[in-house]
Amino acid sequence: GENVEQHPSTLSVQEGDSAVIKCTYSDSASNYFPWYKQELGKRPQLIIDIRSNVGEKKDQRIAVTLNKTAKHFSLHITETQPEDSAVYFCAASRNQFYFGTGTSLTVIP
Amino acid sequence: SQTIHQWPATLVQPVGSPLSLECTVEGTSNPNLYWYRQAAGRGLQLLFYSVGIGQISSEVPQNLSASRPQDRQFILSSKKLLLSDSGFYLCAWSVQGNHGYTFGSGTRLTVV
Asked: Which residues of B fall within a CB distance of 8 Å from A94?
């Protein structure tokens, strides 16, 4: 099955700085890569996704890049704000999703 | 619009007792349904998924089972809970094909 690795497990940045979270996957047949944000005690919420026929996608302060050859994809958050503090999960999917282990992001005011 | 309901929100059960968590989806037909478990401070582990009534796939061997008696109902069960079954259980659905999940609000299970 698919194996998704996510780094770092924890990340602290100053407000206004950028944050980058990286994931790798093992199954070259995976073709859909969503990112979820989970605030404490709440359900994960989809924030951005990318399909395998696209190399980069941007939505305001959030962007995701995909390198199919290297089988890795990354989440980039620019101009971070305290409300960006949460746990972020990447996932790789061909049919069902396989999630990374999560990154706990803390934005320091 | 589509909505997903999951209950109960919290549950405290003694070791050895049975478990039944229910998830229902409204506003869509023939969804893919999923059960995930999230241990404290850990990632999301896929437990079961279903592409149709009576069709259940298990990802990992465990003390749990799942059933899909109706198109939009997904049930997670156990005959005898273990301490290690404690965690945050999330139901999710997606349309057929490869699209984003929508998660339920979760059930925090504590086995004592």
From this structure: 98
Closest CA to A17 of A81, A72, A66, A64: A81
Average pLDDT over residues A28-47: 91
What's B102's DSSP letter?
A: E
Contacting B residues, span 20-79, partner chain A, CB-CB under 8 Å:
32, 34, 36, 42-46, 49, 59
Q: Which position has the higher pLDDT, B39 or B28?
A: B28
Mean pLDDT of B77-90: 94
- Any A CB within 8 A of B103 CB: yes
Mutation target for A interface from B3, B6, B44, B94: give the one with most A CBs within 10 A. Answer: B44
Q: Which residue has the tokens 């005898």?
A: B80
In the prediction, which pLDDT does B36 show? 93
H helices present in B1-112, as ranges: none
pLDDT range class, residue B97, cuts 50, 70, 90: low
At A102 the three-state DSSP class reads coil
Residue A75 CA to residue A84 CA, distance in Å, equals 13
Q: What is the mean pLDDT of residues A28-44?
A: 90
Alpha-carbon gap, residue B75 to B95, rounded angstroms: 18
pLDDT of residue A12: 97
Radius of gyration (Cα) for chain A, nearest Å? 13
